[in-house]
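Hi R.,

As promised on Friday, here is the backbone we talked about, encoded as structure tokens. Could you run it through your design pipeline when you get a chance and send me back a sequence?
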């Protein structure tokens, strides 16, 4: 074999090897992820539902090869947050579901671990909140409730979810917008909508707040009167005016998002974001949204990070005004 042919042969082998290595690296980089999603709440709640819905859709769409959901309940999600930050640091195969309630819980529980430690991946969904009163309530509209709040905020007893959560935050915003004393907000937190419902039907509280879907059956049965939605626009097929329609400049939704651990690389963050985006832009996810009554609130990582920062400031301002944060 001539020297020239030998050079050509060596070059050809090198090129072939390079192509094979590149293909292998590309296949490795694009291999479906095997993920663990931390749901920082007990089974059956909103974060658990969002985690398991995302799990199913990611696997169904091929966005991930395998997804495990692990429940870590406690303290409005801050127990799960602490474990996630401490145990998953640098792990590009883990994510955690969270939302506006965690923003409040970090403040009200004075959590030593905050959301500044996590890596924003995406905002996912939003639940419209509804303000309801018992069917026999003298408050026929949000204006009636606002007048009562302005006259004596402490005499209006609210029922809702956990202290510092979305329901509590909305009650504080309404009290402030009504011209009442938000520091005297009389809010009773309940672990579930069923307990809050019993208190309202028993006449022990004046008003309640929860996700619209949670109270929908009682509203349609005429046992509760829905007087306002917290969304920027009306829900399709729901004849309930928004707060803004009724002259109250308040808008809030119970949003949920997904975050990665601290100290993951830009490549790891990008891979998680791409997998989540593939899932939430699929027909399978659209079906989940419809079945659950969730709004599509998707924001990619950069936009979610900016939103998270601004919402943390807003939540802190509200909770400070009602004495739950400093």
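Update: got your reply. Pasting your designed sequence below so it's all in one thread:
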């Amino acid at each position: 074999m001539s020297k020239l042919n030998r050079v050509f042969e060596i070059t050809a082998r090198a090129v072939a090897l390079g192509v094979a290595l590149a293909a292998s690296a590309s296949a490795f980089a694009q291999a479906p992820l095997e993920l663990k999603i931390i749901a920082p709440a007990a089974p059956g709640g909103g974060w658990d539902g969002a985690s398991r819905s995302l799990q199913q859709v990611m696997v169904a769409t091929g966005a991930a090869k395998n997804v495990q959901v692990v429940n870590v309940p406690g303290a409005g999600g801050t127990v799960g947050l602490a474990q996630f930050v401490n145990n998953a640091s640098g792990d590009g195969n883990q994510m955690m579901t969270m939302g506006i309630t965690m923003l409040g819980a970090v403040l009200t529980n004075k959590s030593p671990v905050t959301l500044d430690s996590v890596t924003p991946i995406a905002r996912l969904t939003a639940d419209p909140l509804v303000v309801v009163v018992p069917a026999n309530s003298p408050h026929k509209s949000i204006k009636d409730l606002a007048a009562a709040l302005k006259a004596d905020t402490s005499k209006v007893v609210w029922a809702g979810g956990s202290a510092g959560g979305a329901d509590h935050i909305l009650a504080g915003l309404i009290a402030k917008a009504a011209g009442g004393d938000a520091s005297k907000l009389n809010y009773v937190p309940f672990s579930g909508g069923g307990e809050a419902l019993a208190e309202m039907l028993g006449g022990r509280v004046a008003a309640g707040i929860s996700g619209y879907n949670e109270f929908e059956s009682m509203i349609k049965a005429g046992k509760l009167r829905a007087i306002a939605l917290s969304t920027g626009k009306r829900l399709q097929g729901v004849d309930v005016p928004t707060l803004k329609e009724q002259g109250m400049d308040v808008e809030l939704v119970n949003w949920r998002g997904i975050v990665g651990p601290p100290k993951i690389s830009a490549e790891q963050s990008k891979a998680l974001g791409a997998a989540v985006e593939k899932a939430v832009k699929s027909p399978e996810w659209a079906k989940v949204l419809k079945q659950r009554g969730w709004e599509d609130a998707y924001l990619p990582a950069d936009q979610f990070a900016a939103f998270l920062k601004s919402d943390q400031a807003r939540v802190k301002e509200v909770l400070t005004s009602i004495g739950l944060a400093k």
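One thing I noticed while checking it: Strands lie at 33-39, 64-71, 94-99, 119-134, 157-160, 186-189, 207-211, 224-229, 253-260, 295-299.

Thanks again,
M.
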